[in-house]
Write a structure and sequence with these properties.
alpha+beta, 14-stranded antiparallel β-sheet, two-stranded antiparallel ribbon, 14% helix, globular
Length: 452
């Protein structure tokens, strides 16, 4: 695997200037966010080969007549693949493929990746860029690297010096103040049989990104999430509520409403490597949304940058019928768009004295949006076991490129896979909504919402 020397050297230099990765960058370094770097800290220039273009502000063109809550068009629907990667020719692209994709080719010789022209569509409102610029010189990691202070309303560490900083950039990435969408979750067994695992409505609200807020008014809950289950019938009425936190001294809270018990209870086990009941146990809870819940059992090393083929601008996949999108052993290659982008590479290694069924992971984080788009996971024997993916979705009316919908994972050993937060055919379809009162995010309200 090859990483850009420029990025690695820059990372090392920053690490030396920021002992223990606790300090923000200086004003001169932050000034790059208004020159050679994008407002989120990506390299503004394209690559030498011209296969990655320069960032020109992202994609913000809203389709004429578009109505919020309906499926967004695919702005690149007329494009044709530049080429395809198959098991026969994958060796010549090996340095731009992650290990999980290589394993998919090995297990499924008919798997294919269609490579399209690269479009750097990630964008955000100017106020988010302004906050990111301020965060660059004020944000700090907690001593244990499991909290952030001095940041609000933007990427906390746009010029990262540490793997934990990069991971917090993902956790505090931009996808709007409040969004609501109908979703379904499907699992596919090793023998190719598909089943509906869960369906319902998800509401996600980001107090960290309240437009009128500030570091002084921010209470530490960076994300509020609520999933009300409507199916299958055996699960209908169940509900989950989560308050995720980013500041030291404030604990994460998560509750579950169980219809059979008719009560809300704390659910601290909805974390780490506990099998995720939303995916019928095929996924793990800390794989949800590409990263979910506490991340304190691993150490994170910033390896550098790499050019990688990743799923990108997949509005077309969101428009597909689920029967067309989901194949017997992998997502239909005709419906998934792959592009060449630069990604930050972060290695996660289990800490001494901790336990986790996936002791090693390698995360690939899109440099433009700071979203994790792929990761690989190895078991305790050192064998490659898991690969998670996100079909990044373009929301020009925010504007944003998001990954909190259309994500899933492959069990590379058994051959099973799942597709979560599928909006295909659902209503609403990633609706941008106004934040609701935080009184509506209580366990009591969860019981009211979940009860049948």
């Amino acid at each position: 695997m090859r990483f850009t020397a420029k990025a690695v050297v820059a990372s090392i230099a920053l690490s030396l200037s920021a002992p223990m990765a606790l300090a923000a960058v200086d004003a001169e370094t932050a000034g790059q966010l208004k020159s050679n770097l994008t407002p989120f800290g990506a390299e503004k220039a394209g690559n030498a080969e011209g296969t990655i273009p320069a960032w020109d502000g992202g994609y913000t063109a809203v389709a004429p007549g578009y109505e919020n809550g309906t499926p967004r068009p695919d702005p690149f629907a007329d494009e044709k693949p530049l080429f395809s990667i198959t098991a026969a020719n994958m060796a010549q692209y090996s340095d731009k493929l992650n290990e999980g994709v290589k394993a998919l080719f090995a297990k499924n010789p008919d798997f294919r990746m269609d490579i399209y022209p690269t479009h750097r569509t990630s964008a955000a409102p100017q106020w988010v860029y302004d906050n990111t610029f301020n965060n660059a010189t004020s944000a700090q990691l907690g001593a244990d690297k499991n909290s952030v202070s001095g940041a609000y309303g933007g990427i906390p560490f746009p010029i990262p010096a540490d793997g934990a900083e990069a991971m917090w950039n993902h956790r505090l990435s931009w996808f709007g103040e409040s969004t609501r969408y109908a979703l379904r979750t499907f699992i596919v067994t090793a023998d190719g049989n598909r089943a509906l695992a869960s369906e319902g409505e998800e509401l996600i609200q980001s107090p960290y990104y309240y437009k009128g807020g500030s570091t002084e008014s921010y209470d530490g809950n960076y994300q509020l999430g609520r999933f009300i289950v409507s199916g299958p019938a055996s699960k209908a009425g169940e509900a989950i509520l989560v308050h995720d936190t980013s500041i030291a001294g404030k604990k994460r809270n998560i509750w579950q409403y169980l219809v059979g018990q008719r009560r809300v209870r704390k659910a601290p086990s909805v974390a780490y490597d506990t099998p995720d009941f939303v995916t019928s146990g095929v996924g793990l809870f800390d794989e949800a949304f590409m990263m979910f819940g506490p991340i304190d059992r691993h150490d994170y090393k910033l390896v550098g940058k790499q050019e990688l083929f990743i799923p990108y601008n997949n509005n077309g996949a969101a428009l597909a019928d689920i029967d067309e999108l989901m194949g017997e052993h992998y997502l239909n290659p005709d419906k998934v768009r792959w592009e060449l982008h630069r990604v930050w590479v972060v290695d996660a290694q289990l800490k001494d004295g901790q336990r986790h069924t996936v002791p090693k992971r390698r995360y690939y984080i899109d440099e433009d949006s700071w979203h994790i788009v792929l990761f690989d996971g190895w078991d305790a024997k050192g064998d490659l076991w898991r690969m998670n993916y996100s079909l990044t979705y373009l929301v020009p009316d925010l504007p944003a490129l998001v990954t909190n919908v259309m994500w899933g994972g492959y069990d590379l050993q058994t051959g099973a896979y799942y597709f979560n937060a599928a909006m295909n055919g659902g209503t609403p379809h990633y609706e941008i909504s106004e934040p609701i009162s935080e009184n509506n995010w209580s366990p009591v309200e969860l019981a009211n919402r979940g009860a049948r």
